[in-house]
Design a protein that fits this description.
Elements (H helix, E strand, L loop, with lengths): L1 H25 L4 E3 L4 E4 L4 E3 L2 E2 L5 E7 L2 E2 L6 E4 L2 E4 L11 E7 L5 E3 L5 E7 L3 E5 L12 E5 L2 E3 L3 E6 L2 E2 L6 E3 L4 E4 L8 E9 L2 E4 L4 E3 L8 E4 L4 E3 L5 E3 L2 E3 L5 E6 L2 E2 L6 E3 L5 E3 L8 E8 L5 E10 L27 E3 L14 E2 L2 E2 L6 E3 L2
Parallel strand pairs: 2-11, 23-31
Antiparallel strand pairs: 1-4, 3-8, 5-6, 5-9, 7-8, 9-10, 11-14, 12-13, 13-18, 15-16, 15-19, 17-18, 19-20, 19-21, 22-25, 24-29, 26-27, 26-30, 28-29, 30-31, 32-35, 33-34
Length: about 375
């Protein structure tokens, strides 16, 4: 019995010593909600949540990549949660932690790390990737354009030429690199190119485009263009035409779609000129100069030939070309005075009425 008495006080003392420990463990901070990693859209709102079982005497703070969070109007603590009015793919990259502290006991507890998988899409321009500069673009050589639209996840890209969508079947498109390649570019590829792309964040098109303008050196380019001619009957007419290309193009003349060859009154000169002597009515019409390149490409230039009609009323005085001497005609009433200068060699015509200079054009009208 005495042994039991001695042992009871020890047992009671041990039981009492456990009470403060159990009391401290009951007051320990426990998270009921911790921030979780999640998807977010750049520019959209988001929330990281943090809660404890017993919020009495609890204060909350947040860490970003292990450092105290910098608060702003865009990102701030609301209650115990961290609120984002507009997620930023650069400023909000990394890990966030919630820290709960008990001001009464001085205890602090860190949550698990959480981060955003930020989805974004940003527009950009279309640029020349290969060759290095536009001045280095050559016909029949490779040309590569790049679309600078970027995003996460990687966007799928589409290419357009002059508003028409290009397909991978007919064009060399690399979606990973977002490039469009012409293995052997030609003038047929010339046009305005732009790109559009989409992903989970949305859909955008390039903010600046690229105009491809390939000059094929074998393609004939006009140097001298024929001009319309009006001559008198039986006079001479000449049309001049020249093209340049590498190698030199061939040149052909057509009259009303009939190929011209040297004849007695039609002479084809080596410099591209066609000469028609003693022009007759059958020689009038449309003359076409055609330059043909090595690749079969051709360019056609047209000009017309007319015979001047000098029919006029014989009762009206006629000024003809001649020496620079004054010619005077008296008029007794208001009227018109037509003149018919030579088409090929127009004279200097000056009309005066009472020593007042009139319009230099024919059919001038004046009053006495």
């Amino acid at each position: 019995m005495e042994e039991q008495r001695h042992s009871n006080p020890l047992s009671l003392t041990f039981s009492l010593s456990l009470l403060p420990v159990l009391s401290i463990q009951a007051a320990a901070i426990q998270f009921t909600k911790e921030p979780k990693s999640q998807d977010a859209l750049h520019g959209r709102s988001a929330m990281l949540r943090c809660e404890v079982s017993d919020p009495a005497d609890i204060t909350y703070s947040w860490l970003h990549n292990g450092q105290p969070l910098e608060h702003s109007e865009r990102r701030f603590v609301e209650g115990s949660n961290l609120k984002f009015t507009a997620v930023d793919r650069q400023l909000d990259a990394g890990n966030f932690e919630c820290v709960a502290g008990n001001s009464a006991t001085g205890e602090y507890l860190h949550s698990t790390n959480a981060s955003f998988n930020i989805k974004w899409l940003e527009s950009g321009g279309v640029t020349l990737k290969e060759p290095a500069s536009e001045g280095d673009i050559e016909s029949s050589a490779p040309v590569t354009l790049r679309c600078h639209i970027d995003g996460h996840p990687r966007p799928t890209c589409q290419w357009f030429k002059d508003g028409a969508k290009l397909t991978e079947k007919s064009h060399q498109i690399n979606n990973k690199e977002r490039t469009l390649t012409f293995a052997s570019a030609s003038p047929d590829d010339n046009g305005l190119y732009y790109c559009c792309a989409k992903n989970a964040a949305g859909h955008v098109c390039s903010n600046s485009n690229f105009t491809l303008n390939i000059i094929d050196k074998s393609f004939p380019r006009p140097v001298v263009t024929p001009e319309d001619q009006v001559v008198l009957k039986n006079e001479e007419a000449a049309f001049h035409c020249q093209f340049t290309a590498e190698p030199a193009p061939t040149l052909e003349w057509y009259h009303e779609n009939e190929l011209l060859v040297n004849k007695s009154r039609v002479i084809l000169l080596s410099n591209g000129t066609v000469l028609i002597t003693q022009v007759k009515p059958r020689n009038t019409g449309t003359y076409k100069c055609v330059g043909r390149g090595l690749t079969g490409s051709n360019v056609a230039l047209e000009a017309s030939l007319l015979i001047a009609d000098l029919s006029y009323d014989t009762h009206i005085p006629l000024l003809t070309s001649g020496p620079a001497v004054p010619t005077t005609h008296s008029l007794t009433r208001a009227g018109e005075f037509p003149c018919f200068p030579s088409i090929l060699f127009p004279p200097a015509v000056r009309l005066f009425a009472k020593l007042v200079k009139l319009s230099p054009y024919c059919n001038s009208t004046w009053h006495k």
